[in-house]
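Narrative of activities, Objective 1.

The group set out to show that a structural description can be obtained from nothing but a protein's sequence at a throughput compatible with the screening campaign. Below is one input-output pair from the validation batch, recorded exactly as produced.
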Amino acid sequence: MTISWPLSRQQVLDDSGRPLLVPRVFFFLGGTTTPLTVYKDAALKTPWTQPVKADGFGRFPRVYLPDGLYRE
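Output recorded for this entry:
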């Protein structure tokens, strides 16, 4: 089963309420430091390069996760 990362399309703001400039996130297998491959599509065919970066408005792109435990 594929799930969409909960922060996909969410805007990340600083303490002043302004969008963060180029926030990034790395994904790992749950409970480890092993990188987790995440994808651009629900079919899990096109992987993202890590770190996944937000746009100039502080919004992360849609990220799809394989079934299982992960950590950010």
